[in-house]
Design brief:
The chain has about 130 residues and is mainly alpha-helical. The protein contains four helices and no strands. α2 (about 20-50) packs antiparallel against α3. It is elongated, with a radius of gyration of 24 Å.
Length: about 130
Amino acid sequence: MERDDLIQDNNYSVSANHDEAHGLVIRKKIWKVTGILTLITVIEVLIGAFIKQYDAAGEDNFLWPYVKIGFLVLTVVKAAYIVLIFMHLGDERKSFKWVILAPYILFIAYLIFICLAESTYWHEVFQGENSINP
């Protein structure tokens, strides 16, 4: 079986050659993306390692709600960056980007709303259960 990228009759394989300058630009972009994603991941790990939900006395840490929101924001930023770079959505027109990204943004906002609404409900259920049966 012959590989179709080696066939000389295929116009794409003949015109797909890149010069060294273009290769350097591509490698520079890959290293930049790797650096940014690594930096965001290191920040997430450091926050998770040093900020705990409970302090030594077993009481809630006042920073914990901000840590959770921070994790959500950093995760969404990484996901959006991956979509924009590796799925080449960043090279598209602005209107097409919004056509693709807006449903996902709305869906994520809906999921966060449902999680918050359900957690409030279950908190009320358990609080009511504890107040009835001490």
